[in-house]
Amino acid sequence: MPDRAALITGASRGIGLAIAQALGADGYKLTLTARKPATLEAAAAQLSGKGYEVQQFAANLNDEDSIKAVVNAHREAYGRLDVLVNNGGVGVGAAAHEHQTKFIDMQLDVNLRAMILLYRETLDMLKAAGAEHGSAQVVNLASIAGKNPQPWLSVYSATKAAVVAYTVAMNKELNGEGIKSVALCPGFVDTDMTDFAKDSVAPEDMIQPDDIASAVRFVLSLSKAVVIPEIIFQRPGETL
Ligand SMILES: NC(=O)c1ccc[n+]([C@@H]2O[C@H](COP(=O)([O-])OP(=O)(O)OC[C@H]3O[C@@H](n4cnc5c(N)ncnc54)[C@H](OP(=O)(O)O)[C@@H]3O)[C@@H](O)[C@H]2O)c1
Q1: Whole-model pTM over 0.70
Q2: Has residue 239 been placed in a domain?
Q3: Is 28 among the residues known to form the active site?
Q4: I want to staple 88 with a disulfide (CB 3.0 to 4.6 A). Which of 9, 57, 81, 100 is the partner?
Q5: Beta carbon of 60 within 6 Å of any ligand 1 atom
Q6: Bridge partners of 66?
Q7: Is 238 a domain residue?
């Protein structure tokens, strides 16, 4: 494996941790970030215990200065960025007449604004990787709710539809510089985020975090001549 590095948000558990595990196993140097230091530290210890090169940096994705600090820590440690995984996200359900402003803002900031800021702050490193090997990759965790917006999860759905739209725009804007973007759009994945649904859908019937990690590996295995703009993950019987 040539020198490669990845930055993963929301990497302390769930889908982000599964992607970090896969990239670490494939030889990427990793920066893991999430909000709560204790969970993040445990995740980093788990991966470094496997011999992967890992650094952790706790940050709240709703804070621009913290995002800049994460990127600077990554730049100082590794000096390059080949894969950016915009995974950290939150969902808060509410009826249209009940949305609390703080939860609207939180979902917009963490799910959408942070992704836009992370592109901006890492673009110099992504462009350098794109110029070097033609396959710098940004992985954006959208959701099936971004393709088929859901009642009561309306704000979440709108942020995820925006993630899909931004991914399309980034491909149009940056493919020429060797930077590809993919929007991953899963249905229920067996993580903490879906605990609310586990009375009606058994965890083993949900998409597994490793399924998402396998898709990231697939995307990264392709030549520079192909871009995968979007992957939809449905459970059997599910339709858009
Ligand atoms: N699970 C699903 O069914 C599903 C389906 C479709 C899409 N997705 C998307 O996939 C992504 C990962 O979901 P998941 O199921 O793995 O969620 P999860 O298990 O709840 O993990 C969320 C991760 O994001 C971090 N995070 C949350 N708020 C943050 C903030 N303000 N600042 C920094 N980090 C923050 C969490 O760290 P802390 O705990 O430290 O905050 C954690 O590492 C999300 O974008 C989600 O919307 C999930």
Answers
A1: yes
A2: no
A3: no
A4: 9
A5: yes
A6: none
A7: no
